[in-house]
Amino acid sequence: MTTAPCQPMLPGMASRIARSGDPEDTEGEPLHWVGHVAGEKRLPTLRKGCYLALLEIRNLHVATEDGTEIVRGVDLGASPNEVHAIMGPNGSGKSTLAYALMGHPAYEITEGEILLDGENIAEMDADERAQRGLFLAFQYPHAVPGVTVASFLRQAVNSIRKARAGGEDDPVKISDFRKDLTAAMGELKVPKEMAGRYLNEGFSGGEKKRVEILQMAMLKPRVAVLDETDSGLDIDALRIVAAGVKSLVGPEMGALVITHYQRILSYIEPDFVHVFVDGRIVEEGGPELAHKLEAEGYEAFMPEPVGGST
Question: Which fold has domain 13-295?
Fold first, then answer.
């Protein structure tokens, strides 16, 4: 395993420290985070020389297969019990960032690192990243004809269990799986009969998104990336999906919520908001920044046209 060296604080950490209380004295030197206490949204252990969040994105550059650069140097750190909202206009590169984090083969990381628990996962395949605890909820989930929801979830759970057992088969007991699945479906208001339907085939937009969150509940990732999960949802479906996400964020999981709009953030209050424009994070703040964006839009953060204003 390649373990990353200690790293100075990433952008946005200053506001995190300011909100966490009075850290230990560092004699005027830059603060660096070296831990996170489960269940607390604060920085409990600060010292000179080291900062490691659970997920660290360092100077990430991502290009498409034809070489077009979409993500242009992103730094971000996230840990359990935290909700980070990444907000930006259409075409800003938010979904590209999400796909690159998960290892989509259509996107190439040309520079930078993606660290999960100190290990650089940037060269790993998508399944390896999932086994280490990264999860992506798709904006447009694909149908898988012939594979039921229950079968898909059981295979996914067993794949994670096998990886964490060092490659040895460690299948979940059928009775335990059924118990967990029934409980999770009840929590997310997913009708029981959907377990026997083919994955996403003929599902409504709301059903697809609920099943995405059901996958998250069953797989228990360490960091979940939600790519515009609110897209296409009516208000009732939005409330159910948001409540499901909110219930899962805690000592064992953090979330990156990618969205255009503030409306899902009315139900999942973010701890940190990152404004994403032209492939970069251009502004960061707390939940109040999301309200400002809803009221004023992204115009103030858009790049100047080539040649300047006329």
Answer: Rossmann fold (3.40.50)
Where are the domains positioned within the chain? 13-295
What is the per-residue pLDDT for 230?
87
Picking from 252, 219, 246, the residue whose alpha carbon sits closest to that of residue 54 is 252
| Residue 77 confidence (pLDDT) above 60 | yes
Q: Between 3 and 91, where is the model more confident?
A: 91
Q: Is the pLDDT of residue 220 over 80?
A: yes
The residue ranges of DSSP E strands in the chain, in sequence order, are 32-33, 46-47, 55-64, 69-78, 83-87, 107-116, 119-120, 134-137, 144-148, 198-199, 223-227, 254-259, 272-277, 280-285
Q: What is the secondary structure of 200-232 as a DSSP string?
A: TTT--HHHHHHHHHHHHHHH--SEEEEESTTTT
What pTM value is reported for the model?
A: 0.82
- How many other C-beta atoms are found inside a 10 Å radius of the C-beta of residue 299? 7
In terms of Cα–Cα distance, which of 148, 143, 147 is closest to 200? 143
> Which of 64-68, 208-212, 280-284, 301-305 is the least confident region?
301-305
